[in-house]
Amino acid sequence: MIDRYSLSPMKDLWTEQAKYERWLQVELAVLDAQSKLGQVPEGVFEAVQSCATINLERIAEIEAEIKHDVLSFVRSLEEIAGEPGRWLHMGLTASDVVDTANSLAMNTAFGWLLEEVDSLLVSLKKRAFEYKTTLMVGRTHGMHAEPITFGLKILNWYSQLERDKARLISAQKVVAVGQCSGSVGTYANIDPQVEQMACASMGLEPAKISSQILQRDRYSEALSALAILGTTIERIVVEIRHLSRTEISEIFEQGAHRSSSMPHKKNPISAETLTGLSRILRANLHAELESVATWHERDIANSSVERIVIPDSFTMAHYMVVRTKKLIEALQVDEDRMTKNMSMTQGLISSQAVLLTLIQKGMPRAQAHERIRDISMQVDVDSPLQDLLLKDEVISKYLDSGEIEHLFSPAYSLKHIDTIFQRFE
Fold this sequence. Notes:
3 domains, 19 helices, Fumarase C, Chain A, domain 2, two-stranded antiparallel sheet
């Protein structure tokens, strides 16, 4: 279940009330700049600021009649402000308000999301170092490959999330821009200085150029960063799902996630939920990419899309990071099962170590490869690879028992683990 803690305050950022409050912030920032530049009568800004409030019911009533949300919002403010209200929205077009307000929202949302990403990074790093030397089998193509450690696996996730953080920071900068350039972006009816002053007061950079709207490559970059973050989370949780399978049983989500029909089941529902949500983030990105191309300077084909995909993507990404942190912190690890699974192939996961050592000892590579392969075909429960190598007359010419034992030891697999972990200290 999606708990309230995981969504708040992110979900509150996208309410109708919050949206109109941002619109009001833009309108007041513009009016303040115009007042300071002497472009509106003295006292107008102060009069409007002192009484301007959001009346959701009145806005809805006006919109039901005129079918335009921004105009309805401005008219409701005019009614409240009285005569000074006529100076609101001077030289602006609806997109100046909406797009700049969207930038305010996304800038805030990125800030909150980055706080949670930092928290998840701390949790991942802690657990990585906790299991730094916990040996387990590494798998390629779904098959047993060579030994790794569980800490190394988690550290790999940590490193990827670090790159996600860098992408989020970059995307935040790209969307933290505002515009007050008028109907087709020419400033024909508004002073460019107003844009500079208004944006500065809201903590935004003014766009170098706009065309009634901010170009949607900016939004696409933002949703791309969120979608890629989602793929990192998906990578983590898909691995958790695999390692939780009955045949592997190396890690588990905390608590019993039950089946309605099978009492014995413990299902990885958090990991599965997060997998599904990552797909929605990618779908939302696709919808926003379709909004980059517009007819001429402006159309509203993007508007209906963005009312959905922007709030949903930020809220979802935030929730996913919070839930992933909880999952990682409570993850149960069965180290004994990891050890048992490593022995499942009776030493075959050390075959490359033997191959390379034989080559170093002077055995031709092709001969060494074929010899180990022939011996490997004889491996079974009663005849592990190490025992067969010790008995083989050809291998014994190159390797003694101590050397063979070392190649199958944890020390061989762990010898460079410290080097890798030191890169993240």
